[in-house]
Amino acid sequence: MKNRITTLFNIHYPIIQAGMLWCSGWELASAVSNAGGLGLIGSGSMYPDILRSHIQKCKKATSKPFGVNIPLMYPDIEKHIQIIIEEKVPVVFTSAGNPKTWTSELKKNGIKVAHVVSSVKFAQKSESAGVDAVVAEGFEAGGHNGREETTTFCLIPMVRDAVTLPLIAAGGIASGRSMLAAEVLGADGVQIGSRFVTSEESSAHINFKKKVLETGEGGTMLVMKKLAPVRIIRNSFWEKVNTAEKNGATEEQLKELLGRARAKKGMFEGDLEEGELEIGQISGAIHEIKPAGEILKEIWEEYCHLKREFIH
Asked: 91 pairs with which residues across the strands?
């Protein structure tokens, strides 16, 4: 398929695997890229030397384009940017910050840049900053979220009307059906996170993967709105946060409760009660662990089948 996203990133299918904290290392990124999508290494949980190692391993595992997702609030952001430039990574997805800060430097070095947004206002700011594409992510998505709480299928057409850039839909997308729906609403491609968390190549702990499969409708909630809104699975940690927020906890109290490495404890180390288990609402529709390439193939085949039916 040729469209603005496949042409921009030089990939076969307009399907991007999200760069997810503790879940998306070189194994997952290379598997998705080898299957024809765009795999992303999630750098937010990596020290600079670890990021370099993952990039180098990904290069050996695939000859196809891949990218790195960088949360712009990362404390060692300058080191990450330098490593990405030195290693000649072809694509960078930025999030959680001002795209103006690094877009021109990355593009000057021949890197394609996409920025993740949760509102029309930030999509327009991203376009002004010179990014090559925007990812419009609704609040169904797992992990850190926008404060606006706009759903994906409300956000996509509004962003489409507001910017001329290639548009990638994210949040609540894990099937060919939702991919086709996103396209009808104006998206040129999709970014998928939660479905790839339960892939065989995901670096998430097996306990976390199995927990995702057990999480039904309503099993996730958006919390920590005073700090940075994040969607997580209900567990003992969630209960503590929920109680604290109901009791009017301050930002400092929430920070103390969150502590350090809470997401690592849950998603990477497999502590299902005291860990922060970040996953999207679509987890209720995910029922099996399988190779990333098979996941991508299933999504694409369902999309093509339904599109043919829709056209005819």
From this structure: 67, 112
Q: Where are the beta strands (DSSP E) in 175-309?
A: 189-192, 220-223, 230-233
The distance of Cα 37 from the centroid of its chain, to the nearest Å, equals 14
Closest CA to 167 of 275, 274, 283, 16: 16
Rounded-to-integer distance, Cα 36 and Cα 149, Å: 32
Residue 270 Cα distances to 159, 209, 226, 262, angstroms: 37, 9, 26, 11
> pLDDT tens across 34-49, in order?
999 999 999 988 999 9
Question: In 123-276, at which residue ranges do the beta strands (DSSP E only) sit?
Answer: 133-137, 143-144, 167-170, 189-192, 220-223, 230-233
- Please, what are the domains in the chain? 4-203+287-311 (3.20.20.70), 206-283 (no CATH)
Q: What string of DSSP letters covers 166-184?
A: -EEEESS--SHHHHHHHHH
3-state secondary structure of 19: coil
Query: How many other β-carbons are positioned within 10 Å of the β-carbon of residue 216?
Result: 10
Q: How far apart are CA 198 and CA 76, in angstroms?
A: 29
pLDDT by residue (tens digit) across 139-195? 999 888 877 889 999 999 999 999 999 999 999 999 999 999 999 999 999 999 999
**What secondary structure letter does DSSP report for 73?**
T
Q: Are strands 15-17 and 189-192 parallel, antiparallel or unpaired?
A: parallel
Identity of the amino acid at 157: P
In this structure, the number of other CB atoms found within 10 A of the CB of residue 70 comes to 27
**Cβ-Cβ contacts under 8 Å for 212 (sequence gap 6 or more):** 194, 197, 198, 233, 279, 283, 286
Q: Alpha-carbon distance 223 to 160, whole Å?
A: 28
